[in-house]
Every structure is written in structure tokens, then in C-alpha cells.
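# nightly structure sweep
# worker-07 picked up a monomer target from the shared queue
# config: single-sequence mode, recycle default, output format = C-alpha cells
# input follows
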Amino acid sequence: MNKNFIRLKKDLKSFAKRVKNFKYTDRILVVFLLTGSIGTKVNLFSAQADNIENQVKAIKTSTDKLRQNLKKTKNENNKSIGQLNLELIQLMEQGDHVIKPVWSSWQFGNSYQYNDWRIPYNGMGDKASKFNRNLTRSKDIFGRTVSPLSSKYSLVSSKMKENSYGNVELQDIEEPIVEWEISPNVNPRRIARIEPLVLASRPGINFQTPELPTFEVPDGDVEVTPPPVIPNTNIFSTRYFIKVNEQDYSNIRNENGIIPNILVGTNAGDTGPISQTHVKGTSGRGKMEVLHNNNNTFTIKTDNTTFTGIEGNDHHIVFNYNNNLNKNFRYQDYGAVGVRMGGGHNFNIENMDIISSGTAPNEFLHSNGNKYRNLLNIVMINGSSNGITTATLKQGSTIISDTENTSAVSLSNYASASKPIKFINEGLIKSTKRYGSVVNFANYGGNTAISSFINNGDIILDGNDYSSVVYNFMNYLNYFIFTNNGNIKLNGSNNLGIHFTSGISHTQHPISIFKLNNPIIIEGKNSRGFKFDKLSRGRLFEATIDGNSEKSFFNVELYGQSNTGMQIGNGTIAQNGLMEFKNFKLKSIDGIKNTLLRINKQNGIKFSKDGDNEELTIEGGDGNIGLNIQASTGMVNEGVITIKESANGESKNATGIVSSAGSEVENKGKMTVSGDRVRALFATKNGKIENHAEIVFDGNTTESTKGSTGMYANQGGIIKSDETTKIKVSKPKSVGLFAENRGDNASYLNTSKIEISKAEITATDGAFNIFANKGGEVKLKNDIILTTGKDSLTFYTAYTPFNPGGKIIFENDVTANIKNQGTVFYYDLNNAPVGTFNFSSWYGNNFVNNGGSKLKLNMEEGSRVLFLANGNLVLSGIPTNLSSSGPIEITGTGYIPAAMVNSNLELDQDVNLDDSTDSYNKLEILSSSITNSKVMTGTQNRQLAIGQENNNNRPASKVKLINNNKIILTGEESTGIYAKRGEIINNGDISIGKNSVGLYLTEDNRGASDAGKAYNNGLITFGEGSSGMLYRADVTGAYSSLTGGLYNNKKIISSSKNTIGMNFESPLGSKEIINDSTGEIELTGENAVGIFALGTGNYNIKNFGKITVSSAASANSPTMAIYTNNKNSVIENTGSITGGDKSLGIYGYSINTQNTSNISIGKAGTGIYSLGGNLNLKGKLTIGTDEAKGVLITGDNQTVNNDLSVINLDDNSFAFINTGNNNQIISNTPNVSLKNKNIFLYSEKSTGNIINNTKIKTTGNQNYAIYTAGTASNKAELDLRQGTGNVGTYSMGGQLVDNFSIIKVGESKVKEKLYSIGMAAGYYDKDNDVSVYTGKIENTNTGKIEVTGKHGIGMYAVGNGSVAINNGEIHLSGKNSIGMFLDQEAVGINNGLITATAEAIGATGAVVTNRAVFKNYGTIRILPKAGVGVVVKRDGVLEEYSSPSTTVPQEGSSDITAEIRIQKPKLPKTGKEISDGSVEIISPAGDQIPQIKINGRTVNPVELDIDTNSSATKLITEGNSVTQITDPENNDQNTNRPISKIGMYIDTSGIKFTNPIQGLNYLSEETEVDLILGTEASKYTNSKAIKIKENILEPYNNTIFSNPQIKKWNIYSGSLTWVGTVQTDVDGEQLKSVYLAKIPYTSFAKNKDVYNFSDGLEQRYNMNALGSREKELFNKLNNIGKNEKTLLAQAFDEMMGHQYANIQQRLYETGNLIDKEISNLFKEWDTKSKQSNKIKTFGIRDEYKTNTAGIIDYTSNAYGVAYIHEDEEVKMGNSSGWYAGAITNKFKFKDIGKSKENQTMLKFGLFKTISPKIDHNGALQWTISGDISAGVNNMKRKFLVVDNIFEAKSTYHSYGTAVKNELGYSIRMSQRTHLRPYGALKMEYGKFNDIKEKTGQMRLEVKGNDYFSVKPEIGMEFKYIQPLKVKTNLSVGLTASYENEIGKLQDKNQARVGYTTAGKYNLEKEKEDKRGNGKINLNIGVENTKFGVTVNTGYETKGKNIQGGIGFRAIY
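# output follows
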């Protein structure tokens, strides 16, 4: 109001200003308000009218405006009154709020809400097009299983042809259809390959040679290699021109005579052109060359080099000079020095190559008139009194001395230069030329300062002539220490490590210390580690220097050849006096002729053990020596000498110590020696060795002329040893102790002697313990033990009547242990008469026993005391006891007192071999002749009646073993007579037992004039495993051409098994084995062989007599008349051979039989078996049945000339068989008759050739005249008319078989597949679909084939490469006969005539099938009814030519006449492969096993069969495992194997049906039908490949067989997911097996998601137990038919788990339901006190519909409880509290299986509402709330697979959190109406964890995922409240809002098949709702202070959802 008054007042004042004489007052204002007008008092009527009029108008206008303002003010006043009233009400409400009770109030209620979606959510929009739930399977099994590729497909219909369903779209995978055409399977009988005969070993063949005593006549020619002589060397003397300077100056000089005379530095001194400088590479590597010009000058050239001069006590730098030098200098001016370093400074040579090269003269003429030998020093170090001078060659730098007489470094100290000098090598120093060296040391003018050279780098000598590492050449005293910590190598030859030539007085004591911490390594030859040409005894190798003890270490390793570790003395000048070496390690490794230590003319040298090292070692190598001492006395060795093997082998020809030329050596060091031809001590040429240390010696030999010798004294040498010695020698030529005067000359006349004590000497394997020869003496003193092993000799003196030999002296008792076959003494009788031998006299001439000493012999059994040679004895005249005599004591039993060799013995008394006291058994006889005139018996095993072995080169006649009486041996492994290189003659009877030999002869071919022979002129009988006669010849020997062998002239008989009549082995052609005409061999036991011959000699085996062997139990162990494996031998048979069943007549190579030959063999036997060579056969041959073989040749390049007069064949036998290469059989036998399954001529190899001139006639069935892989020519008539299945010629190797004569063909029996064929070529294995053989046949123009029998065939060819050519005539007179039959890509050519007579009904001129080609140039005339000219089928090709000269074929042009000229049926392939290559079944024709490949991997099928006794028992075979499953028989499943016009369905379950197959009548008119293979068998196994066997297929085979009118069966699996084919029998007429292979489910996948799912499905396939629920699921999949693609897509879609696709949405919705109820409590239920508690239960029915495929519609029924606690503040609009809720939401999915999910969620939250302080009514409110939630969810997923519902269950958890902000403003329109606009934003995050279904089938895993919701909302709330009565109100609320989700609720969830490794696949996601949702809700409620009821209805644009609900509450 005030504002209006003020405004009106302003207007009136403004009016007064514009109007004259009008003045404003408050009275006028009041008047105006009362009357609405104003007036003037003075000038209302002015003289000026216009002005008055205007004023009036203005007043009127102002008045009108004032009225309007007053009206407006009135209205505003009324409004203000209303507002004041509303404000009053609000004020009252504020008061009510303030006085509201503070205690808690409670409100309880419940509600139910219903939602009804009228349309689905507009998602992806693809659900309607992808789902069709009307999938009804056909009840007709053919309707389900017929392939869309079948020609019968039009006979069925299906609504399930589509390959998609839901979100799954599958690939079109069509199984190819195999066409099986029933047709005759013409395949000639395939002959199994003739395997080579594998003979079982014959025990007799490996008969062991009797062990006879052996004794080599001692060979005194024992050779010991003499040691090398140490050559003398000369020392030359000369004078050198050397300049040494001790001054401190640094300069670089100019050339002589050029001014200035220095280039830089101090002009002082004249030693070296360059003095006192560092030498470094300027930038990179520098180079300095010292070039010698072969005159008096040398040149210094530098490149990239900096010289830094040093002088003074402060070591200051004088200059840096880096100009390149190229200056010439004279040797006499500067002392032949390159760079001098001195002055007490440290110098470095760094990054440099310093090289001395060119040719320096050996001497030069000085200007003083003297000549000097050149000595060049590249770097010289001079001493100084200022300090130590040190020079260092840094790592990477080099100094190379490539000039003669040049030293790389010279350390020269002079006079008063008292400080030491030092050189350190860290780089490389190399010396390559004569007299070059690495370093020389010199001290001049009495200087004694110590020079030091330290090598930390590499030093290499590469020259070939006396280069040295250290060269001490002048007779000056020198003091130095040489230390090696690096590498020193001496390569090349004649190089020296440390070389001393200077000779100084023994009274002077220079210091020379060599600290070789690393050894000097010598790898060249003729080099030495140390060489002391002269060795001053005053030189000190140890000294105390600066208080430190410095000791030398002489360390050298020798490799290479002829190298020496250390040499002392040059041999020209003798030196005396003690010189001791204390620390040494000299070693040779794999060297040749190396010597560790050489001493020549040096007396008093001692190698002491007092140092740290005392090693003298030889490892491996050849010809090495430890110590070689020559012309030196007083030598003492305390070092340890070791000779042993290296890593590369043992030491050879090595010697420990050699003392020669009068040397005297005392050894005190232990010696260990082992190796080949080694020696421990060697004293020769008056040399002496005294040993006082232990010796262990083990020597052997690998040579025949040289051995090892423990100690050897020769040419006056003397060895004395008094310390423990163990010597072991082995092998001939090896001797323990050997003393001889061999090589005597005038200089060495003293007796060679060995004296030894404390020794054990062992000799084995032919060695001698002690050998004293040619006057040598061996004296055995105390503690001597000798051991003599087999073939060894204890004492040998080489005594004969003409040779006194040596002497063996026993000073004390000596013990000798003689082992078995060891010998003590040997003596040669020299053919003296018996009785002239006097042992005592002989002993006294050779042995001396001093002081009553004894020789004590401990004799083992079999050892010998004495061996005699060359005597003549009779058994009765041999003394039985040889008593010991004289100083010999013998202990032991079973030893041989005496033995004889090369003698003659007659057995003149009976011999009992069992009696050990029998004089014959006590006698040892070697290499002698024996004649038995009495009876010899024995019963023990391994007995030998008579046996001798010849020795040396004596002829066989020198050893004659004759039996003139009886020898009876019953023990096993015994021998009647045995000889080696002798003559055996049996004139009596010999009887032997098991595994024994009657006559046994071996031949070594060493006899000079005749060879050994064994004759049987009597009777030999023998037992099991024995041989009557046995012969073996060695390949060695010089007289191998002499004739010898075995000769049987009488009887050899045995009835035992595994026996051999004559057993022979020879590598020589001069030997022979003959069963003479009077000889008989009769062996009736198993595995017996008449004549058995081995070896490689070209000897003859001859049978002139009779050989009989019995039947055998095994073909691999046949009895054999004659056997040899020797390809060089020839077998000749003119006698009789008779063998039983499975016997073998002759087995060998070249074989000749004569007219008198008669060979007869029983069934399954072989007459002649030849491995090579030619056969010329005459006589008679009789062969038994059971595939017996007349002649079998297996070698190469053989020719068989068959001139046998008679050949008798029994059934199922072969006459001639060839299995070798390039062999020819020519048959000239006049006539042969074939009975049943005979093959006359058979050749297995394509290189064979047969020429048949024999007329052949069959009398039975399945015979072949010629069956060959090679060429053949038939030139005789073949009459095959009698019998069936006979074939004239059969080619199987691609070679031509031609016919020049007549072949008459009889009848074929088709049912039995016995085809009679004139000529056939090739063999095709239909099981494996492979051509096994190809052939080529030709009926020549003179040939004629007459086919008189029905179904007979003239010519037949099969296989690619097989060819049949008719150039002659083929006449058909038999019914259904065929002229030419061509199969499997064979080629047939008709150039001749093919005719059929009228009676040949159904005849066919030619059949062409399976891509075969028939070329007709000739004439075909088929006259009879139903005749066919040419049948062309299965891609066969007919080429017609009008004449033979035509080159281009033209259809219809050839001369073919027949009722049906050309007939062309079809025959497709049998294998199949899925288009994507995932499954391939390679199913060749015939009976070969198909190969199944799944994803490229070969899978072995599980085999399913039924027990023939009970079909309810299924036999599941997997590998070697067979499982039985019992399946109840079903009698009501006849429909499971129905027949219709479509074809026949094979039920593979194996169920035995009570009724026969029904519907056969449907097939009666059909010629082509389908053969559909069921997959029922898959329920019995998890295998992906199954083989159905014959027992199950039997009824279906019967059906096929009973419907011959059906020519073609189209084969495929009835299952969409399986591939099937069949394996027919070899003829292709019956089912042998059915093969099923499962197509991987992944093959059907068209995208990655379906692929990953199907991969898991595939992995689960074989993980289930039979009978399990999941196995049933796969059974359902297997049952899906070819015509039910949609069904498979549906199954995939159902199983993929779409129920999990929108988990987030359902979680969000469930949480939102709680939010709505809590929001309702908050907004709709007012608070009754300051602390308000509101709680309600609720129920909600909701649903979700969508048009998105893959998102399943569902309904949900939720029930729960909501609670809110609110604390109000005093100020209106402010409150806070918390809320909680729990809900269970049950989802029912509208999928086929009616899946269910229960979600239970708990939610807890906090909220706060605030209002601005100035808003006392709380109209503007901001509410913020936040909550968290957790839930547990149970999914029971159900899905349809085919016609069954399967399920899987899971439990998973969810979590979430949310924040909501809402801002609203409440407008109080009146006391009863409210209007509240609001805006809200809710953000929510939720997550569920990984889901894993743990029970059920096809369990899935779902990857955990989350969602994020951001949902803004705006709306308007209208509320009207109408009081009905006191405290009872009616409320009406209307809310309109819009919300839009801008977050991301929908995300593709990923699943995978559980318990597999398959990848994850994406589930479909719902389309995000970006269009928002409009909502309208109407609520009507009535409430009072106690109760309330509310009804509501609403509408949402999303889904056009209509809502309705009702609620109740009670208030307390």
C-alpha cells in the first residue's frame, strides 16, 4: 500500500509542475483519492482556450490512469490479504512443527504395486526376426535325417531348415554323400608276400672249441728300445759392443753428423737414439719400427707416437715430441739400442706396437778397427743411483723382435747405479728369429743391484732357431729375478725358455731366481724349458733379498715333440761340484720323445725334495723319458717320478730313469710307472742305477715285438734296488727283470747285472718274470715273491746245448706262485732220444742257489713245473710222477709236473677219462700226434677224448689223431676227437652225447705244406644238439690255399633234435665238405640239418650219397638236408634227399642237381631255397601241400634252368618262386598238372623274367600258371577249364607278360568271388583305396584266349599303370563272360578280335570302371541276347578308334556290335571330407581300415559290437581295453531301422529287434537309394570316432544282399553333427564296418562368440560319464538330424546363457524398488514427531519386455521391508536420518525352460535435508542421501536341447553404492493446494562377482562386471488436501516427471563354458535407454491420526507401462 501512495503522490506533483496556477497540496491528494478528480480555483477558465483544453485532456488522462492504479491497488490489496492469511497458516504450521512431540512416533504399513508393460522396450529390434518357437520335429525319421544333398530330399519337408535361431547363426556344414555302387569285385587272389625264411639258430653251430692247454715256445728275442743319446753342443765365444749409461738425461738424437745433433731434450749421453721417455700412441695406436738395413746402420721410424721425456729428481717432463721419426743411426754410435730408459724414473709404453725387423749383420766393423757381434736391444733399462728405474709395457701394447740377435728388453746395470731396475710386461712380447730373446740381464762394473722382469702378459717364441725367453750369454755376473704370472709359450722349434751359456767361477755367486708361478709351456719341437750349457756351482737359485727369501720354481710343461724340460751341460765340458735344485715341476703331457731332465757331463747334480714341489711327471704320449743321465756321476734324484695315462690315453714307450755312458744315478724318489711298453729303470753302457725308493710298475704291450720291462740292464749296465718294488708285466715280450749283454762291443765288456731285494714281480698273459740272457745275471736277494700267471714263464735263460744263456742267482729263499697254465721252467729236447733228459744237470747250468737258498714253488691246479719239447713217447712208458729235486720245494695239487709239445704219443692202454689218476689224464700234451688203439670212455660233461692243436707253421700231417677202436662219451658238451690244423681219421666207432661233437677240426692255415682233414670211415652216433663232424677254418694264415675239409664215407646217425650231421665253416675256397656215395646221413630228430656250412669261402658242398631228415614243428625251424649261408659256395646233389613236413631240402646259393637227383619234401616244406647264384635243375622234385614250395630263389641276378623231368605238386603249393631281383626262370619240364591253389611259376619282383615252355593243365580250383611282377612269356598251352578261379597268367609288377599260345578259361563262381581269368594284371586294395600292384599283359597276335565257362574273363587289368593289350583273339562262349575287364585307372587296348557266340548270353566285350581307359582299335562282336559291347562306369573312359592307325578317338567310330553297344553306369568315390577340413574320413575301397582325421589329427575310433550270445551286451573296444555295457533289449523299436522309398536307416545301437526289418517292399522297385547311418552308438561312448562292427550290421547286410536290384547306395550320417561312411568288404558288396566321426561343434560357428562357446561345448563332449545327465545332453545333440539345422542353432542359443546377459539391469531394478519404497516413506508419509520411524512391508509385481534378441523377457515378484528413521530439527525443512531396506525379487524368465532367479538385497543409507536459514517455511529443500547395498543371487538356468529341458545352477553376489541429490521448491498455492517443482540427480555404482555354475549340465562361467548409473530427473508435483472431517483428510497427488539414464547400465557380459579352456564369448547387451522415460502418477489417499489408505495409478512411456497399487498404514 505504501508504495501505491508514494507513486500517486509523485504523479500529482509532476502534474502540478506542468500546469500553471495549480499547486500541489496533500488536500488535493485526498480529494483526488475520494472523488477521482481535481480542480483549480483561480484560472480554471483561462483566456487561452487551447491551453485550457489541453490541460483538461491531461487531467482526464491522469484521472483514468489513476483509476486503473486504484483498481490494481485494490486487487493487490486483496491478494495481500490472501497472502497474509496464507502466511498466517504457515505461521501456524511453523508453530505446530515447533511444538511437535520429541518422542518417537511409529508408522506401520504395507503396499502392493503392479506394473503392466503394454509394449516391449524398443531395444535392438531384432528379437521377432530371430526367434520362432514353433519348432516341431518330424515323427518320420527320414524327415529328420535326409540330407539336403540327397536326391530324395524332395520327398520330405521340414520347418527346421534354417541355420539360425536367436543370436546364433551357424555355418552351412554339409556332409558329402558317398555313393556305394554294388558291382562285381573282380580281384584275382592276392598272394601274400613270400617272406624270407628266418631260421632259428642251431645250437650246434656255436659249439665251443675245446679248451686245450696253450704254451707259446718262449721267444728270447725280447727287444728293448735303446734310449736316445744326448748330443753335445758347442758354445761360441765372441765380443759384443754394448753401451750402458747410468746418467739421468732425456733426449731424441739426430742422425750422426747432422746439426743439431739432438732433435729435442738434453744433449748428454750416447746410449740409444731415444732416451728416458714415455712412449705412447698419440691418438689411437702408435707404431715404432726399428729397421735393420743389413749394414752398419738401423732406422727408427715412428707413426702416431709421442715421446715424453723425463729428467731430474722431481721427474719433470722435459719435452713432448710427436713428430714422426725416420732417422738412420749407426750401431757403433748408440750401442744398438732403440729406446733407453733410466735415471730412476717410471716409464710406460702404452698403446704401442714396437717392432724390430729387417736384416741385421751378424757383426759390424767399429771405427776403432774391431769387429763386434751385433746384439740389438729394442728397449734397454739402465740403472741409476737416483732411484729405481721401472718400465711397463701396458696391456694391449706389443714388442716384437723379428730380427736375429735381437733382445726385446735388456736390463743392464752399470757400476755405481746402485738402485734396482725393473720391467713389467702387461702386453705381448714376441721373439721370432735366431738368437733372439725376450730379455737379457747384465750387471757391469761390479754392479750387484737386482734386476726384475715380471711377466703379467704374454710371451711367445715363434721362431725356429734358438730364440730364448731369457738369454744369459756373457761371462758377467748378473743379478735378477724373473717372475712369470702370465703366459709363456714356446712354439716353433729349437727354442729355449731360459738359456745360460756364460761360464763363471764356482766361487762367484750371482743371483738368478726364476719364479715360474705359471709354467713355461712348450708346444713346438726340439725346444727346452731350461738349458744350462754351463752351470756355475756358485750361481744362487735361492737368496734373501731386501730381507725376503726368494726361491726359484722351475716349472715347465712339455707338449709337442722331442722337447726337454731342463738340460744341464752341453757335453763338451765336464763340470763338477754339488748343485741342488729344490723346487721343480717338470711335466710332459701327450708329448712324443720328450725328456723331463737331461744331464750330460755334469757331476754332483741333485734334485732335492726339500722344496715346495718335487714333481717329475709323464702323462700319455709316446717315447718320453723322465731322467736321461749321460756321462754324469753323483746324480741324486729325490723327485717323485710318475708315468701314467693322460686324458687321451696311456703312456707308451716311456722310461723313468736312464743311466748311460758310465753315469751313476741314485734314486731316492718314489717312482710310479704304468703304460704300454714302459720301463722304470734302464742301465746301459756301464751305467749304474741304485734305487733306494719305492717303485710301483705296471707295464703291458700292444706290439708283438716289444714289451714292457720293469728293470733292464744291458751292455755292462748295473741296477741295484733295495727298497720295496712291485713290478707287474703282461703280454709276450714283457719282462719283469731283464739282464743281458746284448749288443756287446769292445767298449762294454762288463756283465750286465740286476740285484734286487724287497720285490714282488708278477707276470701275466705271456710275460716273463725274470729273463737272464747272453751272460746277463739276475740276483734275487731277500724278500722276493714271484707270481706267474697264465701263459707266462717264471724263469727263462734261453739255454740250449749250443747257448749257455744267462744266470739266475738265488741269494736267499725265493717264493714263486704259479697260477693255472703258468710255467716255471722250459727246456727243448731238440729231438733227443727218450731218456737223455737230466733235469738236475740242466738246472745246475742255469741257476745258482747260494747259502742253501731255496726256490719255493706254490703250484696252482693246472700250472706246470717243466715243459718239454720234441720227444717220442708211449702212454705206458711215461713216468707218473716227476719228483722235485735239489734246492726246489714244490707245494700244491693238480699241477702238471711235466708236459710235452711237438711230440708223438701212442695210447697203448685203455683210457678212463673219468679217472683223474689215469696216466693219460695226468699228462699234458701239446701240438703232438696221438693214435688210439684201445677203448676210451667217459661219462662226465665237457670231456675230450683226443685233442691237439698244432703250433707255429708245422703242417697238418705233424699232428695226426687216429681212432682205430672205440670212443664212447656220454657226457654233455664233449668231443670225440679234436684237432687244430691236424689230420683226424675215424676208423672205428664214436658215440657222443648231448651238445657234443664226434670229429672236430679247426684250421688256422699256418701249416706250410698241407691243411687239416677229417675223415669218417666208421660210425658216428650222437645226441641232442650235437654234430657228427665239425670243421672251422680261420681266414688268417699264410697257407690258406691248401685243400682240406670234412669227408663222410660211412654213417652219421642221430634220432635226437637240433643235430647236425656235417657242420662246416670256412672263409676259404680251398676247403670242402663231401658226403660221398657210400656216405649216409640219417637224422630223424627235430631241427636237424644233414650238412650245415657257413663262412665266405668259395668251397663246394657235395652230396653223392643219401640224406634223410624228418618233419619239423615250425617253418622257421625246419629240418634241412643241406644248408649254407655262403654265397660263394656251390651245392651239388646227385644223390637222394628226403624231407618230412616243414622240412627244407637244400638251402644255399648256387645249386646244381643231376639226373640221378631225387628231392622229396612234405607239406609246408621247401625243396630248394636259393639266396643267390644260378640253378641248373635236373632229376625229380616232389612237393607236399600247405604252401609247400618246390624251388624258392631270393637272391639277385639268378638264372633257374628247370630241366626237371618230373614235378609233382600237392594242393596249395608252389612249384617255382622268385623273390629276388633280375632273376630268370626258364621252365622246360614237359607237362605239369595243377590241383588246387597251386602256383606253378611265381615271381615277386618286377625285375624277374619267366619263360614257360611247360604245358599246364588244371584239375582243381584257384590255380595260377604264371603269377609274376616281372616279365613273362607263355609259350605253351594253359588249360584252365577244369575247376573255378583259375588264372593263366597274372602280372603284378608293371612288366609285360605276354601270351604266345592258347589259354582256355573255365567258369567263375561270382558269389564266392572265384573268378577264372585268362590273363590278369594288377591288384587293387579297395580297403585302403590304393593300387598295390600294377601289371601289363599282352595277348600277342599268335595268342588265343578261349572263355568257355560262365562269368569267365579273358583279360583283366586293375590299377593306374596296369595295361591289358589284346592283339590276338578272345572268344567268349560262356554265359555272362567278359572279354576284357579294366578297373581303377587301368588301360586296356584291343587291337584284335573279341567275339561272343550266341550261347554266351549276357556276355560283355569289355568292362571299363573306376577311371580306367579302354581303347578299341579292333573288333568287338557280341552276338548273344543281353550282350553288351562295352560297359563304362565309375568315371571309366572309352576311346574308340576307327582303325589301328587312327590317333584321335571318335565316339562311335570303332567296330563294336552288341545289343547294348555302350553301357555307362556311375560309380563315385567313397571317402569324404567336410568342406572346412575339420573332419576327413579316408575310406579306401576294400578291407583296408579307414583313417579318421579330426582337425588334422588322426583319431583311432572306438569299436562297438554286440556279444553274439546277447545283443544286450555291448562291447566297447578302445585300444587294448574292452568294456562291456548292458543295454536292455527293446522289442518295440522296429521303426528305428525303417525302410522307405528314400532308403534304409541303420540303427547303430546294436539293439536286437524281435521282428525282421520291415518295409522291404519299398525297395523292390528302387535302383538307387540312401543308406542313412544313425548315431545311436554314440550314447555308449564319449569318443568322437566310432566304428560299428559286423555283428550289428548283419541284418542290414542281409537286406542289401537281398536287394540286388539296387545298384547304388548313397551313404551319409543321419546326424547333423556327425559324418558317416562305410567300409565294405574287399569286393565292395557287403558292409564290413560303419565309421562315424563327430564334426567339431566349432565347425558350425560363424562368428567368434559362437566359436568360443562351441569350443567349450566340444571340450565338454568327452568329459561325462555314460548315463550322466550331461551325456544325455550330448546324445540329444547327436540325435539332431541333417534336416534339423534350426534345432542345433536353437540348442546353441539356449545353452549360451542369455539369462546372464542383463544382470546389471536386474540388479539395478531390484535396488530401485527399495529406493522407491523408501522414497515413498519419506515423501508420502508425514512425520508425527521429532523422531519419526516409518516401516512398511511391500510387494511389487514388475516385468520387462524388450525386442532385443538375446535379452530374455521376464516378470518379477518382489517383497520386502523398508524402514526410515528421521530426526527433524526445530527449523522447518531441516532433518536427517537413516534408512534401510531388504528385498527378495523373484524373476521368472520367459524362456523355453522357464528359468528362475532369486535376488535378495540389503540396503542401508543416510540422508540429510536442509533448507536456507531465511526460508522459515522450509519451502526450498536440498536432500542428499547415500547408501550401500549387498545382495546374494541364485540363478536356476533352464534351457531346451532338442526336446528336453536341462538346467544349471549358480550363486553369486552383488554390491553397490549410490548417492542422490534432490532440490525442490514447494509452492503453497493455497491452504489446500501445493505445487512443487524439483530436480534430482542419482549416481549409482554396482558390481557382481564372477559367476560359476557348479551343478547341472553345460555349466557356464560368467565374468564379473559392473554398471554405473547417472540418472537426472525433473518433475512437478501437485497435491490437493481436502479435510473431510476433524483430523481426517482426503489427499490427491499428481506427479509428472522425466528421467533419462546417461550412465552405462548395459555392458556386454562375457561367459564361457565352465571346466574347459575355451575362450569367452559375449552375451548380447540391451540397448541403452537414451530417449528417457516420462512418468505420470496419481495418488489418492485418506488418512487420519491413526490409519491411512492410498491407491495409486501411473503410466510410464517406457514399455507403455500402466501401474496400479494400494497401500495401508497405521500410526502410533
